[in-house]
Amino acid sequence: MEKVLKAIDLGGGSSARECLYKIVSDLDLRESGGESHGVDADVVTSLASTFLQERAKSNSRSQVLKDATKYGWKCFCDGSLTIQQVADMYKCSPYLLVRSIVRYKFEQVQGVAISKKGLGQLMRSPQLIDCEKLRMQVLDCIEADVSFSPYHDRIREVIGDEHEFILRRKLSARGVYFKTENDLREIGMSKTPDMRLEVPIIVSGTSGENRLINWIDSKAMFGDPVSYASHCAQFQGYVNRFGPGLVIYWFGFVDDLNNDADVLLSHGIPEIITS
Asked: Where do the domains of the chain lie?
């Protein structure tokens, strides 16, 4: 795992897409059938995406984005650099930067206020942008951004749906009865886990101990400390409503995080003792 993390860290100097390609290449994932140093390719991709996303998020929330926006508009006007190249230079999200530049064009250059909803509509439907040069650069940035663009959101949603389907199929095959998140919302419940078990089950914990499970939440990602911290309040809400539960990080997780008496972490469905 150390070599994997080192490759991710060293790959962090260029654009997000180039970083992912470099990491995959450095670890010989293609040639090794999808695994390298004992780590599955999906885990590496998830780790790399999280690293790049946190870096871009940090830069995009700070003065960096403001500086990149002004410089990016200047370069756009004089043609010296593309907006994507400016994003690479400032190590920020191409999508968030071009979004900021579109807002800058309306509010600072044209003196026209644009609502968050209106800006979002332009970014979801770039064909509505009347300036062809800007429209093409918006499309380029959306395509290049592997962390924040609408395309990435759709891909992440599809991967999540796929793993929820796998979870439902496996639970049904084992005779476990449950209600899905959609089932629960239909009866007026909000902020629910992916699966609420109709009858609690007992599974084998990490140390072989018996753990009572009332709900299961599916995470199609690697559970690193940053991601886990962002989910803790969500998990605690489920515990408060339904009791102890299980979170499946399909691409693995940092072992030290598995220390909550009410929330068991696993990379799959643990051995079911009783159901």
From this structure: 2-60, 62-148, 152-274
